[in-house]
Amino acid sequence: MSDVRSGGRKPDPEQVLADASAWWSTEIVDIAPGRIAVRGYPIEQLIGALTFPEMIWLMLRGDVPTPAQARLLEHALVAAVDHGPHAPSIAIARMAVTCGAPINGAMASAINVLDDIHGGAGQQCMQLLQAIASDTRDVDESIKVQEALDRYAAEHGKVIPGFGHRWHGVDPRAVRLLELVRGAVAEATVGGRYARIAERIEHELQRRKGVPIPMNIDGATAAIYCELGFAAPLGRGLFILSRSVGILSHAWEQSQQGGRIKGPMPTRIPYRYTGVPRRDLERAGD
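^ thats the sequence. predicted structure below, dont judge the formating
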């Protein structure tokens, strides 16, 4: 049978195979029967040698981090694993389990809501920090921060991602992470510029608002991921990796507790109806 796309000629089998092989290309993993290599390293050499944070780094960056870099990455991942069942993603995972979803379905449901508003602040803060750091003008950095905040507020609104928290006056996770960043700077693991910019933003927000607007977990992890050289979109992915641990834990706990079709609040607590008052249907001719 002729192939119209090849001008009536039969396709060359070798070319078909070459086209199929080129359909997907990757620099990440090389797999053949009896062989698995990740970024060029045989998997059997990585097993038992790399920690999970080091493996994440290798997969995303293509090389093996220093032990100090891997520790700082791990600190950020540990800090963001969970924030309780009132967090929408966690609540969704638990509700999904009570609706009969398996663990993987509950996790997928939860992860799917980790977007710009719930889960995106870390990436957004990274973009803000990187924009300020990339400003090469010969002006004081405080001016760069002020102008960047003005631009961000004009485009996105008054909420600055990575600062302030609806539950915590001072986010204990951010406090501890910033201590660890300062230690990493002292050891020359990272340069500290992004952390300093984040602290300048914190000071500027306090100056503008007249009250402290402390850095939160998203701001602290954003500073760490920027210090470690990650691209901003990876900040969201790293957060999702971290929070997936909490999602899994809550989904599993709910599966052990049982429960059936649990909504966001007990059924004895009514929601608020704000529509028109009760009325009768009247039809023409009745």
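Residues 232-257 form the longest helix (26 residues).
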